[in-house]
């Protein structure tokens, strides 16, 4: 075998190895792209089917094959949609239990990032308002007929958080007449203002926030059986952090919300959430 033949064989072997390498790389790349596309399609299908946990897992798996900003955005979207869905499901559960104020609160958390859930939530908010007003008007009338004005006061409060209509005003008349016969509390308007604004412009703790609302309720309301004033959660509105205090009554086998109060964590200023207008009204 001469030198020329040896060189030819070396060239042939080199070319063959190169061709095999190119083919192998092509097969691997094809398999990688195929797997990536399969994961992406399945993730998007899960996203459309409200299976957000499954979608997030598949999107993250696809990221192992290709780093893509679009996938990161899809993961963020799935996380937001997951929270949206949870708020919607909680609201439906509260609605089924006839806890209409809690249901409305959760329906309001559903954003228009999901058009269908948002549309249903807005519709259900109106249904909850109608059901709450109808239910509490009936309960209020029963309480008045039984001279149980403490319960009547609670039912009227729940209604006026939603709809201060003419029928509600008529229901308030016997209650107000009865309340006038009660011994008045010694605190006047100035005293009430001092109570709610005590230690204002100073940071407050959760317990202090709860105590401020308890004192306010005691100074402005008649005694109501089974009334509870409790810290519920933190919230942020217009860049300000608040402790959210839930005021409610235990009636039979369920709770009836009387109001949601917000206490600014930084300065201790207190407000009541106006559900109908979705805004905070400062307490004075």
Word description of this protein:
InterPro entries: TPR-like_helical_dom_sf. The chain crosses the membrane at residues 10-28. Keywords: Coiled coil, Membrane, Transmembrane, Transmembrane helix. This is Tetratricopeptide repeat protein. It comes from Clostridium botulinum D str. 1873. The protein is of the alpha+beta class and 284 residues long. Among the domains are: 3-67, no CATH class; 186-284, Roll (Nuclear Transport Factor 2, Chain: A), CATH 3.10.450.170. It is 62% helix and 15% strand. The protein has helices spanning 3-48, 52-63, 69-96, 100-107, 115-145, 149-160, 166-180, 189-196, 206-220, and strands at 227-237, 240-251, 254-264, 270-274, 279-282. A five-stranded antiparallel β-sheet has the order 1-2-3-4-5. A hairpin with a 4-residue loop joins strand 4 and strand 5. Helix 5 (115-145) crosses helix 7. It is elongated, with a radius of gyration of 32 Å. Mean pLDDT is 75; it is low at 147-152 and 178-190.
Cα shape: elongated
Task: Please mark out the parts with pLDDT under 50 across 5 or more consecutive residues, or reply none.
Answer: 147-152, 178-190
Q: Work out the strand percent.
A: 15-25%
Strand order of the largest sheet: 1-2-3-4-5
- What does the radius of gyration come to? 32 Å
Helical amount: 55-70%
The secondary-structure class comes to alpha+beta
Discrete helix count: 9
Q: CATH superfamily assignment of the domain at 186-284?
A: type vi secretion system effector-immunity co pseudomonas protegens
The CATH topology assignment of the domain at 186-284 is Nuclear Transport Factor 2, Chain: A
Give the end-to-end Cα distance, rounded to a whole number of Å: 108 Å
Encode the helix/strand succession as letters. Answer: HHHHHHHHHEEEEE
Quick check: average pLDDT? 75
Q: How many distinct beta strands?
A: 5
CATH architecture of the domain at 186-284: Roll
Coiled coil: 71-98
InterPro entries: TPR-like_helical_dom_sf
Organism: Clostridium botulinum D str. 1873
Transmembrane segments: 10-28
């Amino acid at each position: 075998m001469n030198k020329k033949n040896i060189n030819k064989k070396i060239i042939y072997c080199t070319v063959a190895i190169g061709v095999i390498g190119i083919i192998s790389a092509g097969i691997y790349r094809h398999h990688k792209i195929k797997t990536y596309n399969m994961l992406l399609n399945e993730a998007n299908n899960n996203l459309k089917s409200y299976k957000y946990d499954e979608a997030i897992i598949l999107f993250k798996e696809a990221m192992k094959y290709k780093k893509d900003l679009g996938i990161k955005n899809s993961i963020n979207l799935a996380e937001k949609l997951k929270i949206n869905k949870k708020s919607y499901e909680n609201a439906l559960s509260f609605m089924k239990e006839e806890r209409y104020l809690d249901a409305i609160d959760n329906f309001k958390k559903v954003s228009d990032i999901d058009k269908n859930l948002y549309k249903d939530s807005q519709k259900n908010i109106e249904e909850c308002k109608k059901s709450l007003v109808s239910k509490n008007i009936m309960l209020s009338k029963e309480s008045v007929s039984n001279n149980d004005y403490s319960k009547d006061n609670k039912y009227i409060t729940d209604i006026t958080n939603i709809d201060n209509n003419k029928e509600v005003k008529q229901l308030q008349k016997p209650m107000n007449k009865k309340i006038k016969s009660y011994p008045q509390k010694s605190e006047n308007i100035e005293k009430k203002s001092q109570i709610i604004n005590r230690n204002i412009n100073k940071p407050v703790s959760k317990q202090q926030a709860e105590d401020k609302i308890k004192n306010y309720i005691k100074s402005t309301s008649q005694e109501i059986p089974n009334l509870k004033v409790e810290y519920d959660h933190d919230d942020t509105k217009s860049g300000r952090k608040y402790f959210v205090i839930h005021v409610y009554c235990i009636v039979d086998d369920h709770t009836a919300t009387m109001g949601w109060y917000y206490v600014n964590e930084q300065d201790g200023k207190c407000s009541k959430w106006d559900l109908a207008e979705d805004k905070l009204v400062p307490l004075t």
